Every structure is written in C-alpha cells, then in structure tokens.
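Can you give me the bound-state structure? Components:
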Amino acid sequence: EVQLVQSGAEVKKPGESLKISCQGSEYSFNTNWIDWVRQMPGKGLEWMGTIYPADSDTRYSPSFQGQVTMSADKSVSTAYLQWSSLKASDTAIYYCARHFAYGGDNDYWGQGTLVTVSS
Amino acid sequence: DIQMTQSPSSLSASVGDRVTITCRASQGIRNDLGWYQQKPGKAPKRLIYAASSLQSGVPSRFSGSGSGTEFTLTISSLQPEDFATYYCLQHNNYPLTFGGGTKVEIK
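Here's the bound-state model for the whole set.
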C-alpha cells in the first residue's frame, strides 16, 4: 500500500529554522513528483510547489518562492520542506501528496504536519 | 496564474438533496481538474479526476462535468457523511491552484 508519512507537530519561535519531512513507501518514490500544500487555520488549501526526487527539480508557486525550500533525499525516500526563519504567519498544517496531476488511482496524502510559530 | 473561482462558498442542504458546486477557471484548462473533499481534522480526499472520472471507491452519487473553463461537481442525493468542505484544483499549468472551497452544511 502506497504511504506518505510526515514528521510530527512542531512548535517554534519566530526567527527559528525548521525542516519537516515526508517519507514515501511502497511505490517508486524517486520518479514521482511530490507536492506540498499549506492550510492555514480555518482556511483553504494552497499549493506551494512540487519536487521530483530523482533530480530534485522543483517548481514553486510564486507565493512561496523564496519563502521555503523543498528538497529530497532519494536514499531514504523522503521529501523535505524547510524554513530558514519562521514567521507567525507560517502557522499552518502542511501536507505532502503524490503529484496531483497523476490520474487514475493516484490520491495519496501524508497525514499533515502542524507547525505552530509563536513567541 | 490561473484563478479558480468556486461557488458558492457555503451552502445548507438536507439529506437527500441534490447539490451542485461550480468552479470557473480564468483561462481554459482542458479537463485538467480534480475535486476534493475534506472533513475536519483530515487530509483531503480526491473524488473526481480529469474533470469527470470517478476516483476508485468513491460513491456513484458524486459526479463531475465540464471542460475548458466551467466545471461542476454534483452530489445526486446528499448523505450525512457528505457534509464537508469541497475544493476544485486545476493542474493544467504551474502554479497549480485550488478553488476557495465550498462548505456543505446541514440544513
């Protein structure tokens, strides 16, 4: 069974750095794009960008370009989302998912990682 | 960026009602659209892909239609487990964009 398992909830202070993870299993992780989605408290879904683990090619939404960094480690089938200096407005649930453009039975999401940024 | 305008933003309906949600794209996206359902505290779940194809395991009361710029999600007979928030998502062009969501509530 295809699975995406995300790292646990984080509580951070403004200005701190953070890296959250998304580990895939039971499919060819390296050759499937991974998408990241933000959901701020009580708000809708926002597509942040996507990464191709085989060569770390990335596509960022302009809204998130320069605000976060996506990376991947093929050896452990894991994608990462990273902040160098968190803001209170980064408080949200972050989901990874296998690329939304894939058709058929493709509907695989991580369970979400809650990031809380508060002084 | 392609803007996805979803309407209504919320609706109240009764069990058994027929419900229709619409997404309009700011430019043509062929049929590169999916519909997602999200319940509180859960990750979204895809109901429809390629605008009108039913995701495996999704009840047949859900259907999608449209192409180009106008898309519709229809629930033919609303069930108690269908009260949730629904989103469309276009994947025709980067950046992918979600609609604003439609919250379906119990009347």
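A couple of observations. Chain A touches chain B at residues 35, 44-47, 49-50, 59-63, 95, 97, 100-101, 103-107, 109-112 (CB under 8 Å). The mean pLDDT of chain A is 97.
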